Amino acid sequence: MLEDKNTQKTSLADLGEFGLINHITKYFKIENASTVTGIGDDAAVLDASEKQTLVTTDLLIEGVHFDLSYMPLKHLGYKAVMVNLSDVYAMNGTAEQITVSIAVSNRFPLEAIEELYSGIQLACETYKVDLVGGDTTSSTKGILISVTAIGKVEKEDIVLRSGAKETDLIVVSGDLGAAYLGLQVLEREKQVFNVDPNNQPDLDSYTYLIERQLKPEARRDVAGFLKELAIKPTAMIDISDGLSSEIMHICSQSKVGCKIYEEKLPLDPQVISACEEFNLDSTMVALSGGEDYELLFTVPIADFEAIKGNPNFSIIGHITAENQGLNLVTRAGQEIELKAQGWNATKEV
Ligand code: ADP
Ligand code: MG
User: Rounded to the nearest whole angstrom, what is the distance from the C-alpha of residue 140 to the centroid of ligand 1?
Assistant: First the structure.
């Protein structure tokens, strides 16, 4: 996991807005040819080339989307970038630039903003995106961060939510439910800590879950895997709110139904054991958990052979006619209607 160690406190007021912007952005390097000029002018200049431009944005608010008592600022910065890159990858595109806007109250010293930006910088370096601008302002309470990602895609490579066809296979990358359980573990530790601050939690058996919650990775690699297999998905979406809710978006926008098989849902062993411990149904967690940032996509049935043995992907069901509705086939073979959400994992409003 990322480190978050900063004990010094320098007041933001002493630095001033321009001093702050300079200070936090000076270590960022431009890596993409499409970035003509970045930070420092009234607007960044990007070279649009022949490709189509993708633009996506997300706003994260303290107390609504994250809790700083267990979310270190460096992780917050990293995650704020990931959630946006994930949206670009879900269009089958490449992310090349981001802008970052922050509002911070005077409760935060400069060192806190440095931590936040070290996470943003790590994300930029790892995912080869350029920070090209943003805005900095104050808030009366708490911290708010908004990231916009800009990407590119060849016109013929764009994958929308609306292209799924009857008989298509439904595929998911990675595994599901871990980020939600990571949040449950962290919430529980917070309660324990509130009762007894000397209690040292033993989190060894939850490392994967906590990592998935605090340091999610956007699936930049999936587009490449699919290209290698010569597969173009018919529809794609990233899993931010939970599998059920995302498959609903694909089905409603594609005007189709679906069948998802409970036994096919990919679960990490830590998810299974944590579900037992928390007395949660692992299928519910996989369907409604959210924040996994995996990609959910549909492919023509002709691609079955190419995709079935691939360790990065699981085939979890298939697309049906719209009038069949959205269904989950249980391990016992019973069909039940898919519901958007069993509970609200991400505190999204
Ligand atoms: P303006 O007044 O023209 O909006 P600003 O003074 O707000 O410009 O910003 C100066 C430059 O710094 C711009 O290039 C802007 O995009 C960039 N910038 C401002 N705040 C941030 C931030 N939090 N992160 C990254 N870049 C920023
Ligand atoms: Mg500004």
Answer: 20
The minimum-distance atom of ligand 1 relative to the CA of 100 is 24
Domain boundaries defined on the chain = 12-153, 169-337
For the stretch 221-256, pLDDT in tens is 999 999 999 999 999 999 999 999 999 999 999 999
Residue ranges of E strands in the chain: 35-37, 45-46, 52-61, 94-104, 130-138, 143-153, 169-173, 235-238, 257-261, 295-299, 313-320, 326-329, 335-337
Please state whether the predicted TM-score (pTM) of the whole model is above 0.85.
yes
pLDDT more than 90, % of the chain: 85
Ligand 1 lined by 143 (C-beta under 6 Å): no
> Architecture of 169-337 per CATH?
Alpha-Beta Complex (3.90)
Residue with CA at minimum distance from ligand 1 atom 15: 133
pLDDT at 273 over 90: yes
The answer to whether residue 184 scores a pLDDT higher than 50 is yes
Compute, in degrees rounded to 10, the torsion defined by CA atoms 131, 137, 143, 145.
Answer: -30
Query: Does ligand 1 come within 6 angstroms of the Cβ of 38?
Result: no
Residue with CA at minimum distance from ligand 1 atom 9? 135
Q: Which of 2.40.50.140, 3.30.1330.10, 3.40.980.10, 3.90.1150.10 is the CATH number of 12-153?
A: 3.30.1330.10
Q: What is the pLDDT of residue 348?
A: 40
For ligand 1, say whether the CB of 16 is within 6 Å of any of its atoms.
Answer: no
Q: Whose CA is nearest to atom 5 of ligand 1?
A: 135
